[in-house]
Amino acid sequence: MEDIVKLDTVAAYNNLRSVKTQHPLVTLLDLSKAEPMPAKTFNFGLYAVYLKELDCGELKYGRSHYDYQEGTLVFIAPGQVMGVQPGVKTFEPKGWALLFHPDLIKGTSLGRHIQDYSFFSYDVNEALHVSDKERQIILDLFSKIQHELDQSIDKHSRKLISANIELLLDYCTRFYDRQFITRDHSNNSIIERFESVLNGYYSSEKPYENGLPSVAWCAAELNLSANYFGDVIKKETGKTAQEYIQAKVIDIAKERIFDLEKSVAQVAYDLGFKYPQHFTRLFKQRVGCTPNEYRVLN
Predict the structure, then answer these.
(1) Residues 283, 264 contacting (CB under 8 angstroms)
(2) pTM score, whole prediction
(3) Which has the closest alpha carbon to 72: 101, 89, 99, 96?
């Protein structure tokens, strides 16, 4: 079984890349001056933001072309596992790597809402591709963080570094919103495929056997991370993925309720509800009346 190397400290990461540690809780690396990552699997105990600048022509993931070629941002959260494949000559792009320990942001504004930056749980193929102007904003913020790292550590260091990281992540949120808009055609395709997945699910025996489809299951069927999938659905429809699924279930329920050979309870079981009363409660919330009342009224 392959050994997984834990990277729980900034010093451990810096040692791996032969870089001097300036601050015990945060580091900023110029990748062109650091040793490449060895061919191992790593379990990160740190937050990481990688800006990779690639000069290798048109970028492509599968059949999808990237929007921009000036730079790509990839985010890693504590607990995530990343691997470097052995036996492959690694092309080490130039760029930057910002890593910080969770202790850096405890008690700060960033620490209180770090979970709001959902892109830390996106897959690598859902990375943020920035324009030249956006890349320059990122580099300017990296420069401010590096300026603080070059100073002697004092009582202001943690607050100022944390504030600049928070500003960086806020800009990344804006840039992702732009990417969602510029990939409108691709996002529409995700909605269509989502509909197809749900229709296929309810054309089978899966609801009765497995219950209601979860957001995570739908995302996996579309080869997307749950967070990225949820963010796309929210941006495009104004509903959460869970609300979208519930709306679809109720829409199907409205048709099946008119099968008078089945009780409302049996309709609920067929739709994937474990308890009929849960179906009745959701139906009333969405439609304004119970399934039995809807059957009689129509």
Answers:
(1) no
(2) 0.74
(3) 96
